[in-house]
Amino acid sequence: MKLSTGRPGRSSFENRVLVAQVDQDVQTLRFGVNYTPSAGWFHHWLDFDLTAVHRDFESIASLGADHLRVFPLWSIFQPNRSLVRGSALKDLGSLVDAAAEHGLDVSVDALQGHLSSFDFLPSWVTSWHRTNLFTDPTVRSGQLAYLQELAASLAAKPNVLGLSLGNEFSQFASAEHPERNPLSAEEAENWLTELLAALDLGYPGGQHCHAEYDSAFFDPRHPFTPAGTARHGAMSTVHSWVFNQTAQRYGGMSRESLRLAEYLVELVRAWSEDPVRPIWLQEIGAPSPHVAAQDAARFTTESLRNVLDCEGLWGVTWWCSHDVDRRLADFPELEYDLGLLRTDQSKKPQGQAFQDVAEAPQPVAAPRTTALVLDVGEEQTAPGRAQCAPGGAFFEAWMSLAKAGARPGIVLESQREATDYLSGRGIQQLVEPGDVREPSS
User: What superkingdom does the record give (predicted)?
Assistant: First the structure.
């Protein structure tokens, strides 16, 4: 794993590496933030201000963060299918270099795509030019060219970890999207394979991945599947948001909400064909009013402590670095106050909670010896995945085991007789969902 060396002295991440070298019972985890600029939000690409970026990065580094996830807007970087703007790539390069000066590594998302309820699509795929974002060969050719050029522009930067295809880009295929782009599960697999290959061509050996939200695990109508999420790219990613009916059903500070990230990490691990494949908790936040403002710090601490008890966790990237300036209009209310920092760079209570966890040595997670068996039918399309959603039978069974202290893992039905696989994960007991009973209070 590359470490940035831009600033003098040791970063908090480098200090944790030294601790891990001395104490083999401590694991090295990455802690970072999804970078939301304090001035102008992601519209800052329109009038890029490197001084403001440095100011933001100084505050982010003070949280104990060692990396960022950053978001070029597709419509600004590739306004025409045959034009990738050199000045936009230069601005991105300057941002990456600034991050290095503050001891921060960077992962870059490519197809934005979708951010905080807003869609950002270039004009060559909308209105009179509207076509399928996933299956149209002309659109694919433009996406491939952009991804390869964007990746190549970053390949020589020593603090760039890699690229993600985009932020929850698959939401454009969701049944709920007002302008849905339909495709089959097979076509989704082909899209992932082809576009990730373009990133590898531009930046060979990078930590390239794709970023799905939980519909891939919960909604049988969704063409992006659990198998695709867990088996493409250099690592699996998880986005944990309690407004997915977890908080509404159980409460924002319920054990279900506080363990949602942990549950999702174990769920994506079950779908991986490699038992030691790294998993990145790429997004997690404390959204108001689902989590009351006075509870945000405790939510941060307890959610992180729960998920840090998962084997194979690469790191945690909090959503997000800074609040959204309330002078910007029309955001859903919960999007304005998700930051660890305010727009004036002051630290919020959840920011301090994040820092306390990030700067503490993390004990190595023990194997989960008990696993709940998940049967969703045919694995590639997973028609039975609705049971994994909040309120579903499998979700409830896993949470019951967790509340009873079992530290449950998850195993697919197809792996229940795979003794080498189970032994490699340290699993000693398999439990059927129907055999789980709610623990008495």
Answer: Bacteria
pLDDT of residue 3: 32
> What H or E segment, with its residue span, contains residue 61?
helix 50-61
| pLDDT over threshold 70, residue 267 | yes
Six-digit token string for 152: 């190549």
Strands 67-70 and 114-115: unpaired
C-alpha torsion angle, residues 385, 390, 395, 397 (rounded to 10): -140
Distance CA 124, CA 259 (A): 42
Cβ atoms of 403 and 255 within 8 Å: the answer is: yes
User: Based on the number of CB atoms within 10 Å of its own CB, is 365 exposed (0-12), middle (13-18) or buried (19 or more)?
Assistant: middle
Q: Report the DSSP beta bridge partners of residue 438.
A: none
138 vs 23 pLDDT, higher one: 138
Closest listed residue to residue 407, CA positions, set 364, 368, 440: 368
Q: Give the pLDDT confidence of 163-181 residue by residue, as tens digits.
A: 999 999 999 999 889 999 9
Q: What's the Cα-to-Cα distance from 231 to each of 210, 213, 277, rounded to whole Å?
A: 10, 15, 9
Assign 12 a pLDDT band (cuts: 50, 70, 90).
very low
- Per-residue model confidence (pLDDT) at position 24: 58
DSSP annotation of 28 reads -
Average pLDDT over the chain, rounded to whole? 92
Contact predicate 372/431, CB 8 Å: yes
316, β-bridge pairs: 31, 281
Answer with the residue of higher pLDDT: 26 or 291: 291
Q: Is residue 198 within 8 Å of residue 144, measured between CB atoms?
A: yes
pLDDT band at 55 (very low <50, low <70, confident <90, very high): very high
Domains of the chain, by residue range, sit at 12-363, 370-435
Q: For 221-232, give the DSSP string.
A: T-SS-HHHHHHS
Q: Dihedral through CA 302, CA 304, CA 310, CA 314, nearest 10? A: 180
Indicate the CATH number of 12-363 among 3.40.50.1010, 3.10.290.10, 2.40.40.20, 3.20.20.80: 3.20.20.80
Number of residues written out for the chain: 441
Phi-psi region for residue 233, left (φ > 0), alpha (ψ -120 to 50) or beta?
left
Instruction: Look at residue 439 in the predicted model and tell me its pLDDT.
Output: 59
